[in-house]
User: Fold these one by one.
Assistant:
Number 1:
Amino acid sequence: MEPVYLDNAATTPLAPQVIARMNEVMQQTFGNASTPNYYGRKARAILDEARAVIAKSINAQPGEIVFNSGGSEGDNTAIIMTALTHQEQGKHIITTSIEHEAVLQSMKYLETLGFEVTYLPVNQAGQINVDQVQNALRPDTILVSIMMVNNEIGVLNPIKEIGQLLQDHPAIFHTDAVQSYGLQDIDVRALNVDLLTTSAHKINGPKMLGFMYERADLTLPPLIKGGQQELKRRAGTENVPAIAGFATAVQLNSSKERSEIRQRLQSYKQLLLTLLDQADVEYVVNGPDIAQTTPNILNLWIKGFATSILQIKLDLAGIVVSGGSACTAGSLEPSHVLRAMFGAQNPRVEQSIRVSFNKMTVENDIIKLADALIKIVRAKKG
Amino acid sequence: MSKKRVVVGMSGGVDSSVSALLLKQQGYDVIGVFMKNWDDADDSGVCTATEDYEDVAKVANQIGIPYYSVNFEKEYWERVFEYFLAEYKKGRTPNPDVMCNKEIKFKSFLDYALKLDADYIAMGHYAQLIRDDSGIVHMLRGADANKDQTYFLSAVAQDQLQNALFPIGNLQKSQVRQIAQEAGLATAKKKDSTGVCFIGERNFKKFLSEFLPAQAGEMLTPTGEKMGMHAGLMYYTIGQRSGLGIGGNGKSNAPWFVVGKDLEHNILYVDQGYDNPLLYADSLDATDLSLIAPATIITTKFHCTAKFRYRQQDTGVTVILGDNDDVHVEFDEPVRAITPGQEVVFYQGEECLGGATIDRAYSKTKQLQYV
């Protein structure tokens, strides 16, 4: 029996239509999209088509979409290249303490180069507000990088308000949209973001692929140097079948479908909590009220149960959830997000699990998870 | 009936790899767990834990078992490493592997495995367990005399062994390698690890100096002749030859050895000759006696054999149990370089009876100046 997969914030399965499209393209052409020949043109046509689909999905122009290897590369490029090209104007950067490691490690790297980074703290619900950004802003602030949706607790950051605030400030605004793209509605013009990074495999697309939206008048030099692909903004021959599959994954989630998916996944969150309540499982939701978080991520403190044990027990029972991010040698690192919310000493930092859905999740998955959790909790009590 | 669950401690070495394979073949529900006991992230060198974990992943996938990693860095630091440092501070030579088995592998890891609903834990040690009619577990030497690891397991107690399995204890190392090779395991040809787990292959002296301030002092002959300076008593072990930097400028050309320590006055005693009489003891006192099957020891004085360090030949001894967990041991013949801090481990034939930590050594009832 296939295990129940509820770790979709880590990665999602490929949608069957994506697999079909990738197969189709792989059989159709192998061409290098940058070469001026029969095969290259065929590949180029598919690439252009995919780029147009993706640009439209966030209200951008095709020329503003740079395909890359995914969220980590996008974050590295956006942050490091912005800093390096704007250091004449200043060396101050604002971010939050609950960003993805791809952002935090890029910041750490910039600190070694003499940049100064302000890490906005979060409240106990994992939230920041626009006033904090305003208070941290300085004349020499060159970059603000704040994720749209947090990958561990699903909190939604006030990107639109921050975008408005930054209209009157020259700082570049980057948002890591890896956990929101394809599920939330994103309009880069309305949000007033300059750089936005995504990943294909979080929305039923292929791995090691994503794109960075780069506003047309920005001219960031490439992080990956070499050939002139992607309008000289990212070297390397494009993986055309994967990109075509990505476009298919995006098309599958139209605005109407996104809305339906959000509603359905939100109801799963509520269902899980109701089932746990009915069984008297002692838990607390990490994060704000579930109505204020992304519908696909739920982080729970299961009182008295070490994350590592709980995650393994569920795995052995055929239920896949997340126990935090793997650090060296496969052991779990206590979540930096939960530490930022509650402090390193709080027991919930090491007694929490993350459950995350995607559109292929079904109600029965939630029931199976609840059953398994209840069984584990009762076994310990009994 | 559902299969019995075994949680195997997998180190990324060939012994634990084959242990997991054999258990799987025997029909157990096997789970591999890698223990990360030491944080070497801030070291400039290669992180061996990461490489070892990679090997665990490869082997577990080859065998077809789930694998996980557990972090016991905090437990290891508090219960093994702090003891290790404290012993060195006292001028003794501790055995962290004995402590690691007692406190981590057969305590923290055992507790962890039980939480995962394990019926047994298993380790790739060369030791054998048998259960007698009354349910008491006895520990026998590993079948491969050259690899026998009962010395390191001597402080593990009966209740810790009740649920333990040593799947390769009845095999020769060469057989273990052969099984791994025939199964094509990724670790089949991996070099055996040497040295203490947290120090690895690094320079021991340098490692220790990072944690304990070294206090240089005088190096004297037993008659008080000054031979130079020592770099810190903790760097020297009774009977050790190398590293004194004196050469043959003595009464003869015979090499120099550490023959004693005076912690109070920070003096290192050295003298010539491997067989120097100051290196020979005929009895010792030890504490923290731990018997594997205490119920089977019915007299307070008995004759058996003993090892005073790993891989040493057994010596016949008479054991006299004290009132608490202390013990006096008299040797049938003098033994060289009895070292405070090390374990004295007792055997009756093939059975390991347990051990105690050496405190003092005597020659003809006179205490030797070893700390």
Number 2:
Amino acid sequence: MAVPELHRFTLDNGLRVVLAPDRTAPVVGVSVHYDVGFRSEPEGRTGFAHLFEHLMFQGSESLEKLAHFRYVQGSGGVFNGSTHPDYTDYFEVLPSAALERALFLEADRMRAPKLTAENLANQIDVVKEEIRLNVLNRPYGGFPWILLPPVLYSTFPNAHNGYGDFTDLEQATIDDCAAFFDTYYAPANAVLTVAGDFEIDRARALIEKHFGDVPARPKPHRPSFAEPRPSGELRGSHTDPHAPLPALAVGYRMSDPVNELDGYLAHLVLAGLLTDGDGSRLQQRLVHREPLVTDINAGAGLFGPFEARDPDTFSITAIHAPEVSAERVLGALDEELESLATTPPGEQELAKITARWSANLHSDHDRLMSRTLALGSFELLYGDASLVHGLADRIGAVTAEEVAEAAKALRPDSRAVLLVEPEQGGAQ
Amino acid sequence: MTAAAHRSAVEIGATPQGPREVPPLGEQRAAADLSHVDTVLGNGLRVLAVRKATVPLVEVRLQIPFAGDDPMHPATAEVLAETLLTGTRRRDRIAIDTELALIGGELGTVVDPEHLAVSGTSLASGLPTLLDVLADVLTGATHVDDEVARESARIVERLAVARTQPRVIAREALQRRRYGDHPYTREMPRAEDVAEVTPEAVRALHGQAVLPRGSTLVLVGDIDPDTVVGDVERALTGWESDRSAAALPALPDLAGGDILLVPRAGAVQSQIRLSAQALPRTDPRYPALQLANLAFGGYFSSRLVENIREDKGYTYGAHSGFEFTGSKATVQVEADTANEVTAAALLETRYELGRLGLVPPTDADVESVRQYAIGSLLIATSSQGGLAGQLSALAAVGLGPEWLAAHPERVARVTTEEVAQAALDFFAPSRFTGVVVGDADTLAPQLNALGGVTVERPE
């Protein structure tokens, strides 16, 4: 496949733009990534970045409440937004006839969102229902993304619950919203991405027309969220009122995703070696041969890879029978890591991971929504959207020795272990 | 929140220029026609191969009708599905995974009361291997004793986890409410049955039921449809039977009735699940009903979502959608709500059901859902995986790419009057039955006051 076409430029107000034309299907994707996520929300306001994301759909100067949804869907499109540790994204995929409309909608809320007390109260209720649905009323809610960080990390930005406590959510005010918007939603703090069926010159003109007069505001200072790695094994436990079986999560610190990308990619390959497929080391041993666990997963990033700057988390999660002790699972894990650290993996074992990554990246690229979002998040986090297109090759270039190094760095004396215990004391 | 000076919310929400005009839509280009071959092989397997070369991958979807009325069928079928990829006469579990991994491939199985589905993907260059592995497991899976024992144990553990999920509890309750003891309700086996499944029973079921005649195989991707059909036929030589795969008997039509309150003690949120008989895709009135459903609760800008989420904040997500089963279809209305607003949310849902027929969608409403129906189909079928999924669902009921290609035109021709008639005929609250799952102590007084609700007696 030819390398896909990519154009990058910056408007006078600082808005970075990525254009990725592809005329194979008459659909277009538009996204805006703002460089603020839940790691930036202040103490006493947990969950605010996500709550604010909801508010951005509630109307803007030219659009009444509900109008944003109606214009997108009434144009045949779909939309959503999501809040991550280090950024918040908003996106639409539409028939290509609606390109200008989508740009207008994003520009209008970047320029002048309508932040009202009534909509804030309504969306606090909606977010509380979202948290009941995804966390409070189901087994393994928030496992591990809410439960593991407070064990692994000691500073508020890294450790706190990004969904937020109900008490914090209820205290959010319209003035908080105004301050958050003015500080973080400046055009210079955002990336606009357009991918799919459009002509470059026309898209440039439309972007200038709709975003060009969004007033410039200063790009906020981005603090470092760095903190020391754990100097021992940290333990935590959580009693789950709904879970029928115990679970555990092991969290490690890993290479800086941005400044140590090759080391980070070695961790991704390691995760595949450990748990991707029946032939992977931990699946073979812990699910089938011994067997100690029902299911086991390993991965970089608590929401997937390439979602956060440093520090990012390498995690291993497993659900296991009550009669199996966590120590046995941890012991087996440490033995497998030790074995990989001393004897680097063979050529075929690496080739399996590389080929699956290559296919998965092609598949992501084929879905316009994920392609648009990947280009935007790489431009934001890495300053270079074109990295997306080189990822498969860079993963393919990871050596056996680099994987062994990554395995060596996952040390028992510098990690967090979270145990989830069923309230009823195990399966009936 | 921050000490720095900032504008007020009112200052942020207005510019000197004032509100601007929303731009009109441009000219829409149609999707390109995709070359395809749609044929039935000598063994009775329908093969639909579509060229869509956007990325160098291929998607494969096999659906085998897999109904059974033996009480042990759901458990045996589940174990069969979970051990299908664990070994053949030529390959063990690890060899299967290794060969697939080296072509960037995956295969997975899912069984439900209607079908055994085997789905997969790989780099297009690896299709010969993918087909070889697929053929091998279809004709040579051994379901050895050890794998049957281990997978049965895992299924029991997973069932325990699944049955604590509110959405699973609600689904099982809705199925019982709608269809009683019909085989269609047995979407997940009983743990005690799984524990009794023998390897002999799994192997016997494989021989009797994993059959090509009546099954469908969809391939979408960077392939040549003309040659790929021959490749499939050669690979699947040996998958033969004169008998046909077992189709689920037609479901009975739903009748309206009381909502059943199903207790789940201590729950902090309730599941509302309502259902009524609808129309299959082949019915001439289906496009009008599709638009009526979108206007009711089928997209975010629907009356139900705008009422109980965006106006009242009762729920994070409310949705209505179709469930297609063989030649029949039903519509489902779903919302999860906090205890204290559950009865109020049910009241509003019933109100909106009634209002859809009595105060039907306007021309503008219909235009909006029409655009959404056409546009969202265009988006869903713009990826290989999305197109493969759509075609596989259509193929299972005897439809194909022609139906998909003609659907935008069918939707374009629907009139506002036809939508109004479909709304009146199909969305009347009296046509619906359903369940509310939640904390009965909290919910019962309000739901009883609302009426049309029966409280389930503890067994």
